[in-house]
Amino acid sequence: MHGDCAFIYSSRFGQGVFGQGHPFKVERFALTYALLDALHLLSRPGIRLIEAPRATYAELLSFHHPDYLRTLQEFSCDSTRRADFRFGLGDMENPVFEDLFDWVSLCCGGTMEAARQVLDKNCRCAFNMAGGWHHAHAARASGFSYLNDAVVAINSMVARGFKVAYVDLDAHHGDGVQEAFYATDRVLTISLHEIGKDFFPYTGVVKELGTREGYGYAVNIPMEPHADDLIFEQAFGRIVIPLLHAFTPDILVTQMGMDILRTDPLTRLEMTTGAVEYAGRFFAECGLPWVALGGGGYDKLNTARGWTLLWAIMSGQEVGNALPEEIHEALEVSGNSQKSLRDVPHLARPDDFSRAQDQLDRTLAFLERRLLPLHGLGFIR
């Protein structure tokens, strides 16, 4: 597939103020940009560096309730501490701060611009690393997410008659996106995530398949803690790839949360950057117009490395394995001794792997028996 690649960015992505002790670190955006710039991955011909705009109020209303948006705006007017737990606002998880509404509208607007670049500006792919807020509901903030940029953007695509496949690789279940499209067959949602029995948002079991016209178009692949690259590649190869081929979407939207990486402080999966590159290569080679979003990732360097490798694949560039000297200096100040862009290969401990494999085998057996036939695929052996 020919065409330019768009990287959506704004220095204002770093202006979110979650608080000193909050696990979400907005500094990861500037760090990723600095790493991409140091590796000269944003400067070759055919790459568009696009300033993110704010999403419009009308765009947000395609999913979010007016009362919720009004409250979010009101709470953003100054630094007064406020809370409204009906809307999930003001607790430790989803703090409110001055200019919050403008900031989250900017992150959402980045995703809308990524969609425009792909749909209307002849780009084959676009990346908004400040998108991917997949836990936000129509009238409730959740999981550090205030506006669901993926839903707002996909709504605009569906309104134009497109079929959309949404694939979520974040360690947490993409509950807000699934909920939005649970009853439609115009959007296929696939989420690979850490199993939710004791893990936020406690949803995404394999039997959540959709309802009414959407039955069979919500797909969940929960994985046991310590699932590694081998588990991920089995799940991806046996479910994600055949479903995308069978669904024949017009557009691909992916959420590329880097909290799947094994040293993330909030999650228990054991993937490496090898899994990121494996998935990224498939998405790039499948020939679909592709909008990629950021998502989770609570180790700043992990996140920057994963997104850098993803962007290199999206934009068709080769990148070596050494972190540039400029990044070394910044990391040494923070006490980080990482020198490589890629992780070394890693396998889970045998007992952890066995538990993860047993869980995956049950999940795949269910999906191959109950889900794949709905898409004309039958059993895959």
From TrEMBL:
GO terms for biological process: acetoin catabolic process; epigenetic regulation of gene expression. This is Acetoin utilization protein AcuC. Residues 22-313 form the Histone deacetylase domain. Transmembrane segments: none annotated. GO terms for molecular function: histone deacetylase activity. Keywords: Acetoin catabolism. Pathway: Ketone degradation; acetoin degradation. Belongs to the histone deacetylase family. It comes from the Bacteria. It comes from Syntrophotalea carbinolica (strain DSM 2380 / NBRC 103641 / GraBd1).
